[in-house]
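Worked example

This section walks through a single chain of length 198. The input is the sequence exactly as stored; nothing has been trimmed or padded.
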Amino acid sequence: MCSGNCAKCLGITLIPLAIIAVLCNILLFFPGGKVADNSDIITDEVFYLGGILGSGVLMIFPALVFLGLKNNDCCGCCGNESCGKRFAMFSSILFAAVGAAGAAYSVIISCVAINNGPKCFTAVSTNVTEYQFSDGDYLSNHTLWDVCTGPGDIITWHLTLFCILLVTGLVQIGLCAFQVINGLIGTICGDCCGCCAE
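Given that input, the structure is written out below as tokens.
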């Protein structure tokens, strides 16, 4: 497969992943699927926008660059038909690094959020939300989940969406790392299909 075709496939894959990450981050603004009365109910890590900025916005730019590599008409620079294509593949490495950094940010935020757990109401404090868990102790001890009385099924909501963000970010990092290798091959060897086929 040509390096340009491979990059296009990666771009096609990254766009839906970015959309999923943005949607998950937006849904986290509705703790337990409920409209928040005030921002104190929302988990702090949601405001870091790992899914919207990291795996979302910062991933769209590399995806669009990857999509355009196959159709990049850059022949004949410096009297060499393939050097323009090589430069385009080299630039894709830089965009892949930006995308990987954004996805890594999302992964780190998701890990911290999963470890801290959600803010929730308790039987004692029905009007104030607080962090009830520490050091991820609730992940292995489900009896602790009974401490949270709301909003909604907040623990499942929190874990599901942040786990989706975590997995999405890891897949994005893997795809961007693959594009770095693909870009290096395209930079060194050029696009195997050639960019000026008659």
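What to look for: Residues 3-189 form one domain.
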